[in-house]
Specification:
- This protein is an alpha+beta fold and about 260 residues long.
- It folds into two domains: about 5-170, NADH Oxidase (3-Layer(aba) Sandwich), CATH 3.40.109; about 180-220, no CATH class.
- Helix content is about 40%, strand content about 10%.
- The chain contains eleven helices and four strands.
- It has helices at about 5-10, 25-35, 55-65, 70-75, 85-95, 105-125, 140-150, 180, 195-210, 220-225, 235-240, and strands at about 50-55, 75-85, 130-135, 155-165.
- It has a four-stranded antiparallel sheet, sandwiched between helices.
- The N and C termini lie far apart (about 50 Å).
- The structure holds flavin mononucleotide (FMN).
- Flavin mononucleotide binds near residues 135 and 136.
């Protein structure tokens, strides 16, 4: 069967949260970022920016804003993947056009940031680096924006800690949901997912037990139910709108 080094790399993926003290050279980081910039992008808009943070003081503050996630501070390089409409607004102004700013441009910029972020992670892993994405950048998006000097119409969609994996702390791969729950052929298969979810709970519980972790709730669905039993980041919409994203508007209101 034909395979490829890229597929082998993707099949080896694990999130890394412990790094050695070794830095990443600017040369290597530039190589990874330039390759990632070849990622596809909606209508060639390139509606993202990446802020590279190496300053220990800034990483420390970001770690606090991310709920005291120590890897944000200990990684040699932290990358903030921003959804960015600021530059597009400037481009429109060059032509005396008022930029559309609505849910669709919010989604476009967030997808663009996500795609380039995933490319950075894959490129970094191909060089032997490890990474953890940091969604907790959305805990306090206003404070994060201030710290990184983001202009209006830019928010950090997620961050990424990059570094050399601490060899003795590379975790085993986390089991994924059964393939037939997430891959559908031709049409969405709406068959009751619960038996396969319960089977996945058992597999994931065995994984956690093998790591010496106690499991007090059903390993997958229990955590999902706990996390989704309350509104997630209920202030986010209002904050993003204050930052210039016109998510609930029709598209022409000032952003
Ligand atoms: C958008 C996004 C945000 C994430 N945010 C965090 C985070 O804030 N902290 C963290 O430790 N891991 C974070 N992760 C990593 C996930 O927890 C991890 O990918 C998942 O548990 C699967 O584990 P694996 O990547 O090792 O297979 C994030 C992943 C993604 C895709």
């Amino acid at each position: 069967m034909k395979t490829s080094p890229t597929l082998a790399l993707q099949n080896r993926h694990v999130t890394i949260r412990s790094f050695t003290s070794q830095g990443i050279t600017d040369e290597m980081l530039t190589q990874i970022l330039e390759a990632a910039r070849r990622s596809p992008t909606s209508s060639n808009m390139q509606a993202y920016s990446i802020v590279v943070v190496k300053n220990p003081d800034v990483k420390r503050e970001l770690a606090v804003l991310a709920g005291n996630q120590k890897h944000v501070e200990s990684c040699p390089a932290f990358l903030a993947f921003c959804a960015d409409l600021h530059r597009l607004n400037s481009a429109c102004e060059l032509h005396d056009v008022e930029m559309t700013n609505n849910l669709e441009t919010f989604i476009i910029s967030t997808i663009d940031a996500s795609l380039v972020g995933m490319s950075v992670q894959t490129g970094a892993e191909s060089m032997g680096l490890g990474a953890v994405m940091i969604g907790a950048m959305r805990n306090h998006p206003g404070e994060v924006a201030k710290l990184l000097g983001l202009p209006e119409n830019v928010y950090v969609s997620f961050g990424m800690c990059l570094g050399w994996p601490a060899r003795d702390q590379i975790p085993p791969q986390k089991p994924r949901l059964p393939s037939n729950l997430v891959i559908h052929q031709e049409k969405y298969d709406s068959a009751d997912p619960q038996p396969r979810i319960e089977s996945h709970n058992r597999e994931l519980a065995r994984h956690y037990v093998s790591l010496g972790k106690n499991q007090h709730v059903a390993a997958w669905s229990g955590v999902i139910a706990r996390n989704l039993s309350r509104p997630l980041r209920p202030d986010l919409l209002a904050t993003l709108e204050e930052m210039g994203f016109n998510i609930s508007g029709q598209g022409r209101e000032a952003g």
